[in-house]
Amino acid sequence: MKAAGNNVRLPMLILMLAGLCGLLVMCSLVGSIGLSPRILVGDLPSALEWQVWSEVRLPRLLLAVLVGSTLAVGGTAMQGLFRNPLADPTLLGQASGAGLAVSIWVVLFSGRFAGLELYGQFFAGFIGALLVTLVIFRIGRGYKGRESTITLLLAGLVINTLTGAIGGVLTFIASEEQLRQLSLWGMGSLSSAEWSTLTVACVVLPLTLWVLARCAGDLDLFQLGEVSAHAAGLDGERLKNRVVLASSLGVGLCVALSGIIGFIGLLVPHCLRLYFGPGHRLLIPASMLCGAILLLIADTLARSLASPAEIPVGLVTSIIGGPYFLWLLLGRKVREF
Amino acid sequence: MLELINVSLEQPFALAPINEQIEAGELLGLIGPNGAGKSTLLSLISGYLQPGSGKIELLGRELSAYLPGQLARRRALVTQQMDSAFDWRVDEFIRLGQQHSGEPCPGIVDALDIRHLLGRGVLSLSGGELQRVTIARAMNQLGVSPLADARDDDQGCLLLLDEPTSALDIGQQQNLMRVLRTLAGSPRIAVVCVLHDLNLAARYCDRLWLLEQGRLCASGAPAQVLSEQRIAQVFAAQVHVSTVEQRQVRIELLA
Fold first, then answer.
1. What letter does residue B124 receive in the DSSP assignment?
2. How far apart are CA B123 and CA B90, in angstroms?
3. B254 touches chain A (CB under 8 A)
4. Partner-chain contact A230 B81, CB within 8 Å
5. Dist CA A24 CA A65 (whole Å)
6. Where is the ABC transporter domain (chain B) (predicted)?
7. Looking at the predicted structure, is the pLDDT value of residue A287 above 90?
8. Is the CB of A83 inside 8 Å of chain B's CB atoms?
């Protein structure tokens, strides 16, 4: 598929924004308790319906939008920075690094810092994602083309396996309650969404999105290669620092809030690039919208398919994303890697 | 325009001290065997590598004193390899790093014979096509073409090219060298070009710098630099050098 021309790309962004708004309305009404659309026009429902809508659905939808956007934009920015279409927070181990750090916090430190539980978890997620990003960046340096892809994937595989193993060790020393908390959270779920947890997310995640969106022009230049990009006026070190810090903060916080939700950072930029082309000025806003849309749909499916029970949304995105990734590897697109 | 004052570099890229100048309005060829330090010298001149000692001044100001954006308006670089991970459309690719406002500089696309490639993706291009597109991008970054000068100031600029003819067919090689010759005809533009084809270097360059094992061993007009004895010594190649015109030489490989 050939990327569309500029004259049709901008209207598509507006269409996606309208689609997101429409989805938000629809998804707020769907779930184990179905709500009437009249709630949207101020026709007062029962106290229970109002509580479900305002205290459960709205924060959850908002979290889905924020997390979906951040994971997709994080993936887009990492792919731009690594100049590699396979650089996804899950595949590279950023998410599992954050996950391990959060698990360590929960098992070893939870309950020791009264009042700081949530922030400690956020901070642990950030540090875990940051450490993995720095390690991956160091490993990927100096490799080019196919060699770089293979090295990055191998590094990601090792990090994912290692964090999984250390996480496994943690389960031996975790209490029953911690185990239950970790296993539900680890599969990826937005069920913990509450207004109190959202306050941090509402500040930090838009901030990381803003920082990454501001890097769009520089990420375009970075595609020329480090030497040519430098000659074209790019301060490469500054760009790397900003993208690594912002994406680690964003991904780390997303993992702390909702566990590991895979493949959004891989799927979204890859699909959008086919239509919008590789320019980050359009790709990043499009990723924000598309990531939010995808996670909204996946989360609505997750809480509706087995209602009143709930499937972890991470399983839904993996079931959609896994086969797509395999198709990607098997298909002719693999030549582009 | 550009002055190298006692510039040297330590291992692993070792370059012996160089004191030379590049003037506006000249096409300078860097020649030498593989691993002689041509690309390293180009990286130094571009400001990507910092000299171990000495200093490099562009338009009377040390390179390290320029902000990246300021430097990008004064010099552009075409590296040996350009391997994009993503499929940029050629017309978008050419605009990357454009320092002047508005449309791409007129004349570049036709001069480099890439108009028919504009709607294609860079991943679908052949090596030679990609090389011409990459050169077009660098020229557009500076805002210069054989037809126009789109820059909004009157200071000079420097175009650096590392083996720009390596993937080009003979016709495109000739065309590119003519384009570079025309550019260097402007009193505000200097072009520095790493070349392996000594005949191209002799035919089109005003001056040559011959590098050998990190040392500038000869500098001057092609007829002065390209002697049979020196080529045998530096390249370990047996050639016959004949003078075809007053200043020009032709080099033939001997069997």
1. G
2. 10
3. no
4. no
5. 9
6. 2-238
7. yes
8. yes
Task: Sketch the domain layout of chain B as residue ranges.
Answer: 2-221
CB contact under 8 A, A234 and B79: no
Residue type, position A73, single letter:
V
Top residue of A144, A220, A222, A224 to mutate, by most chain B CBs within 10 Å, is: A224
Under the banding of pLDDT at 50, 70 and 90, the label for residue A335 is: very low
Question: Could you tell me the domains of chain A?
Answer: 58-336 (1.10.3470.10)
What are A31-82's pLDDT values in tens digits? Answer: 777 777 776 666 666 777 777 777 788 899 999 999 999 999 999 998 998 8
Q: How far apart are CA A302 and CA B129, in angstroms?
A: 49
CA gap A105, A124 in Å, rounded: 7
Q: What is the dihedral of CA A22, A25, A29, A31, to 10 degrees?
A: 70
Q: B76 at the A interface (CB within 8 A)?
A: yes
B68–A contact, CB cutoff 8 A: yes
CB of A224 less than 8 A from some CB of B? yes
Q: Are A217 and A77 in contact (CB under 8 A)?
A: no
Tokens of B193: 């070009």
Please tell me which residue of chain B has the smallest CA distance to A235: B68
The letter for the amino acid at A314 is: G
Which value does ipTM take for this structure? Answer: 0.88
The answer to whether the CB atoms of A278 and B86 lie below 8 A apart is yes
Name every residue whose Cβ is closer than 8 Å to that of residue A154 and which is 6 or more positions away in sequence. none
Angstrom distances, CA of residue B121 to CA of A302, A328, B78, B116, B132: 39, 19, 19, 12, 14
Structure tokens at A279: 């320019």
Contacts of B92 in chain A (CB under 8 A): 277, 279
Mean confidence (pLDDT) of chain A: 83
The Cα–Cα gap between B65 and B50 comes to: 12
CA atoms within 13 A on the CB side of B14: 6
Give CATH for domain B2-221.
Answer: 3.40.50.300
Distance of residue B91 Cα from the nearest chain A Cα, in angstroms: 11
Q: Which residues of B touch A145 (CB under 8 A)?
A: 83
pLDDT of residue A186: 76
CB A254 within 8 A of CB A67: yes
Tell me phi and psi for residue A147, to 5 degrees. -60, -40
Give the span between the Cα atoms of A263 and A313, in whole angstroms: 12
In this prediction, what percent of chain B has a pLDDT beyond 90?
Answer: 47
